[in-house]
Amino acid sequence: MAASFLMRKSSAVRFRNLFNRSIAVLPNQHQIHHHPIPPPSSSSLSRFFSSSSPSMASSDSPFPVTVHNINPKVVKCEYAVRGEIVTLAQQLQEDLKAKPGTHPFDEIIYCNIGNPQSLGQLPITFFREVLALCDIPSVLEKPETPALFSSDAIERAWSIIDTIPGQATGAYSHSQGIKGLRDTIAKGIEERDDFPANPNDIFLTDGASPAVHMMMQLLLRSEKDGILCPIPQYPLYSASIALHGGSLVPYYLNEATGWGLEIKELKKQLDAAKKDGISVRALVVINPGNPTGQVLSEENQRDIVKFCKTEGLVLLADEVYQENVYVPEKKFHSFKKVARSLGFGDKDITLASFQSVSKGYYGECGKRGGYMEITGFSPEVREQIYKMASVNLCSNISGQILASLVMSPPKVGDESYELYRAERDGILSSLARRAKTLEEAFNKLEGVTCNKAEGAMYLFPQIKLPQKAIDAAKAAKTAPDNFYCRNLLHATGVVVVPGSGFGQVPGTWHFRCTILPQEDKIPAIVNRITEFHKKFMDQYRK
Amino acid sequence: MAASFLMRKSSAVRFRNLFNRSIAVLPNQHQIHHHPIPPPSSSSLSRFFSSSSPSMASSDSPFPVTVHNINPKVVKCEYAVRGEIVTLAQQLQEDLKAKPGTHPFDEIIYCNIGNPQSLGQLPITFFREVLALCDIPSVLEKPETPALFSSDAIERAWSIIDTIPGQATGAYSHSQGIKGLRDTIAKGIEERDDFPANPNDIFLTDGASPAVHMMMQLLLRSEKDGILCPIPQYPLYSASIALHGGSLVPYYLNEATGWGLEIKELKKQLDAAKKDGISVRALVVINPGNPTGQVLSEENQRDIVKFCKTEGLVLLADEVYQENVYVPEKKFHSFKKVARSLGFGDKDITLASFQSVSKGYYGECGKRGGYMEITGFSPEVREQIYKMASVNLCSNISGQILASLVMSPPKVGDESYELYRAERDGILSSLARRAKTLEEAFNKLEGVTCNKAEGAMYLFPQIKLPQKAIDAAKAAKTAPDNFYCRNLLHATGVVVVPGSGFGQVPGTWHFRCTILPQEDKIPAIVNRITEFHKKFMDQYRK
């Protein structure tokens, strides 16, 4: 660490930029991205994409559109979860297919992204039955149907179809989503929180990402507007802030206290940003954490809510992992519930909570369903949000239906309940075991420390890299964590994402690894990673 | 017309703004929106939303977020298709439900939006069978299934599931969409055009709207970047340009020649924009036209392609109505086919073509499926587009599947073919009859002229309003066409969109009306509109 710290201090700006990638922040001083953005060099592009073609001068190009004359915010935006390492993995996969046996592994294991079904997780039967029946209502009345579908799925499909105006399952819906489905979701939120929820506060969206973009687009006027984001963070936030031309104001999660979120750190970064002339509009909190896996305590959440109230910040609560909590001592509490239990109403705190069908035990990423619940916005601003939703007409109806289903799954006594419960509990308890196994394995590796995944779908181990590895990365013109991940991929076929894609304290190196490979594959993965790591450390040891 | 022209000339700026709404353009001089945008007045907000609450001063507000401190681009953006008239209609619908008999109609007929299934159009059986089966693959092997689903739907579902890596129908796909589905779409394009199509040029999207936003986000750096858009236009374009901070450079379609698109008008507006320091990046062409319904001749398209090549403009081809052509003398030709048949390759013309599952004979708006085919972009820029797609992970898989189905429907000999053909031809021939009936009805109204709908789903009649109606609109602080549409709604329950939402030559007034109500309802709609129009004209006649 001391060595890498010296390294950083003495290195040229360009090299440091390569190190610190998308979130170029210093530990005690945030760096605001409001300098004019220079055209990207080909090496900066190649950090995320595999293309090795040189940067093209506008004048030589036969194309009217070049990287030099497109929106620089697009060029600036980075998204490591599908970045360079993944592109490399896709190439290796093609290789394996074309020439089996040419690599020391026979499959690519995608641990870069929270995409459970891509790694073999099966969908929840009840949810899929209802979706299929809503797609083909004519089947609902056929005599053969009860042999193929459960009775409560048939009943639920009817009740959903009846809630759609004109039973038109193929029509654009209300811009916020079908009212009857929002009613169901509001009821689900009420059951979860024990506080009222209003269906008119809910906007159904194609997954959580478009909802986050909508909030960023609403709040960010220029680079003088900032959003407080955790470091490390899920790169959707940095990407969205970059695309919408605002400034990311980082606050560091404390790795030493299990990725603790400390109010004094929030306050320090807020004040520093203000001093720089940044108007901080909102605070992003990801709970359970991504990539960090921590689950906030209710007391901590109360302090966060009070902080937002005092400072006049919108609280953007990423709660997409609300069903993914693996430790008995922690429980998920929604920020809205915490705010309401403090007695804070609409006029005290402005809050957007994001939920998705892609996570939880369902993991229906491909359905692109989700919602945001917005409270504490003035009627005039809500009209503006409604208008933004209207420009895209509506989110997809299957995703809308699924969002209502995850908030109102089968209940005791329903025909599907036992199967549903078995599927849900099977997935969640297996995820808990996988998290533990992987965490323990990482902690056994030389120079690696890994906090527990209390929730979500990831581990974010820190690796203390030998100086020779850092030098080798420098020679390869890449960041040390990227260098490690690339080597890991080449040796094992396991795809993980370098910590620099999420942000990390400079001079520290991490990677994010999902806990999603099927359980029977975990031992082999652990072996492969362990074996690779040993060789890597041996190779670069002084 | 002379009277209204004088009106406009003598009216105050504020009033003129109300007149000219989202596309504030003058006939011979385009107005670029690069002035600092003032906070919206409550009357400007109420143009789109029903709220009558006064504009709130920041200092009095308990909310940290107000219309005065959000992104002014959001405030500026307007989208009439779901604007004030629709909000009013929704209120009337609630009214009707709560107190039946209180209005002179017993249902609201939504002719404001191209949403066929909301007005009773049924989905194509084969498409829905395949979608349902892909949602619940376990059903595919059950003995009861062939009684419920056609054999080719079962076969197609298998082949789609097999094309998805790991058969994971619930996983995020490749950022551009599932490769196998892109292969199918590329093949469909080749069959349509008789020119090669590359699956790697295809980006599957949640409908056409996100694809348009992506292109605007890519191309627009500031208000000094402009996009040539037809006037009248589909307001997605003006909304997206406003949201992304560019300038709309209008070109007028010639109503007198059936909404003709004239190259000399393009050239004139391009030159005028350049003189104003605007760098024009792209030309939007909607073919078949929305809201105008014209179908371009191949010769006209060739000139447009040559114009884009000469001027270095990206051609943004909105081709979502490619299946909706109703007159035997016209045929849809894709711009890519036209470009290729001129011998223009990737290095000659940069082209994005948008397609959607929401239109055509399928009208599956709620599925939010679509794609863009991009050609003639440099590898570096394609990487940037890929990155933008990656930030949102992928479009919804059901929409992706449906996009592949509409580009490869059942073929002669398939079990579903006869039913599919009957459904498709039934819908298309009925749409053609409805277009004709409504057009003839509009042309019979006093002071109304209406071009033929050669394609798409709309008529865009012009109404010459009496001066007294214009004065009454002024007194009611609204635009005359809005005033007419509002009165039409109150009298008949028919929802149409004022021409000012699409842009029109100042001093002329139009509305857009879809041709989508079911055929058996058309006579009653015609009667109601005719009766209303007579009364309206009588009331405001000098």
From TrEMBL, chains A, B:
The keyword Ligase does not apply. Homodimer. Coiled coil: none annotated. Pfam families: Aminotran_1_2. It comes from Stylosanthes scabra. Pathway: Photosynthesis; C4 acid pathway. Residues 167-528 form the Aminotransferase class I/classII large domain. PANTHER family: ALANINE AMINOTRANSFERASE, ALANINE TRANSAMINASE. InterPro entries: ALAT1/2-like, Aminotransferase_I/II_large, PyrdxlP-dep_Trfase, PyrdxlP-dep_Trfase_major, PyrdxlP-dep_Trfase_small. This is Alanine--glyoxylate aminotransferase 2, mitochondrial. Its cofactor is pyridoxal 5'-phosphate. SUPFAM superfamilies: PLP-dependent transferases. Keywords: Aminotransferase, Pyridoxal phosphate, Transferase. It is an enzyme of class 2 (transferase). It comes from the Eukaryota. The keyword Ligase does not apply.
